[in-house]
Amino acid sequence: MNVIIIGGGQVGSYVGKLLEENGIQIKIIEIREHLIDKLIEDFSSEVVIGGSGTDPNTLEEAGIKSADVLVAVTSRDEVNLVASTIAKFEFGVRRVVARVNHPRNEWLYTHSMGVDVAINQSNIMAHMVVDEMDMENLSTLMKLNRGNYSIAKVAVHEGSSAVAKPIKDLGIPPKCVLIAVLRDEEVIIPRGETFIEPHDSILLLTDADAEKEINRIFAVS
């Protein structure tokens, strides 16, 4: 997989390191001269491209024609949006992820602007705080850009009514899908016959209406 990251600040460099550690080929585009040398030290001169992420020539130099994903994470919403639009509609990049810096601009991050996934850090943090206050066991990890869905995590405590029951008997709502059961160091793909144990952590995809029901299912009785 080839990924182009626009913006080599703290967010961009962190994403780049994480992707490299997972064997993904990356290019980082950065326009600020004082950051370019540091990025070259941390990555390499082959990875770092000096220039603007909104310049088609710079994008071509970074190999956008063969890129699978473009990640626009500069601190300027206008740059992230323009880069997303160019990547999607001029170069046909399959997946475009863009950072929202100012929540008031989130409405602009749409498919018509070339954005597949908008990451609004302020919004995610706010929802996590509210969800932690409202929900005893369930915490939101990420709000998705499509529909009213979230990726969430449920902690199974001692005394939970779900303990020692198979998943098929829990009455999971239709608009909720269990993704994985994390048990000690093990990742378990959930099946109908998978039994829930104390101290399990369960990753799930759910809509807002199903969250309260999920919290009830895993609550301590």
Automatic annotation (TrEMBL):
GO terms for cellular component: plasma membrane. It comes from the Bacteria. Residues 1-119 form the RCK N-terminal domain. InterPro entries: K_uptake_TrkA, NAD(P)-bd_dom_sf, RCK_C, RCK_C_sf, RCK_N, Trk_Ktr_HKT_K-transport. Gene3D superfamilies: NAD(P)-binding Rossmann-like Domain (3.40.50.720), Regulator of K+ conductance, C-terminal domain (3.30.70.1450). One of its GO terms (molecular function) is potassium ion transmembrane transporter activity. Pfam families: TrkA_C (PF02080), TrkA_N (PF02254). Residues 139-220 form the RCK C-terminal domain. Keywords: Ion transport, NAD, Potassium, Potassium transport, Transport. This is Trk system potassium uptake protein TrkA.
